[in-house]
Write a structure and sequence with these properties.
Structural class: alpha/beta
Keywords: Fatty acid metabolism, Lipid metabolism
GO molecular function, one term: delta(3)-delta(2)-enoyl-CoA isomerase activity
EC number: 5.3.3.8
Helix content: 40-55%
Oligomer: single chain
CATH superfamily: 2-enoyl-CoA Hydratase, Chain A, domain 1
Number of strands: 10
GO biological process, one term: fatty acid beta-oxidation
Protein name: Delta(3)-Delta(2)-enoyl-CoA isomerase
Number of helices: 11
Number of domains: 1
Largest sheet: 6 strands, mixed
Strand content: 15-25%
Amino acid sequence: MCSLEKRGNLFILILTGQNGEHRLNPNLFSSIISAISRAKAESTRGSALVTVSHGKFFCNGFDLDWVNAARSDEETQKRFNLLLDYLKQLVLAFISLPMPTIAAVSGHATAGGVVVALCHDYVLMRRHRSVLYMIDLDLGIKIPEPFMALFRAKISRSARRDLLLRGLKIKGEEALKMGIVEAVYDGEEEVTNAGIKMADDLAKRTWHGDFYAEIRRGLYSELCDILGIASTPIATPKL
């Protein structure tokens, strides 16, 4: 599950769970999407959101135990497709948020967990005890176009190649050099505190959320077209 804490204009989305892996299943997806919707509804001028987690994992991807617990191959495929649809909804929710977003990746992010991190405007990462790892090639799973569009929008061609076609487990320092993350820190607490500080600094700019979201749409126009996010007419304020 997850929880949402509000400190003034700052929203802190905390990934929680008994196993500490934060595996994506219908319950967790629903919890995160509901929290994002609440943040959007309660946002004001100058809001920002940071996503944090506790434990060894930031997010360990799809809950394949839940998928494989189905009683037939047909039901297994339905469950997997349902998770893909939820992940698409989550990407859409983050991309549409009228505020800056930061992912404080203090643990491993695997497959869908990498997608969750890249949904944010900024990604901070733990230097050593944290990796980005796309396991899809190892499992023989095709990456659907909405998520490929996210990778194209957020990271460089060579980084995409190494992440997706080489299946590298990319540690924080490597991710920084590859331009995937903005900064790296030594420990979980340092990453979390840096994410909160960055969100707080951005919130102090008191940007108009609707304009922020609209500029983001323009920046990632291909991704937004695939997700079906339409541009929204906004009245220009008097200068």
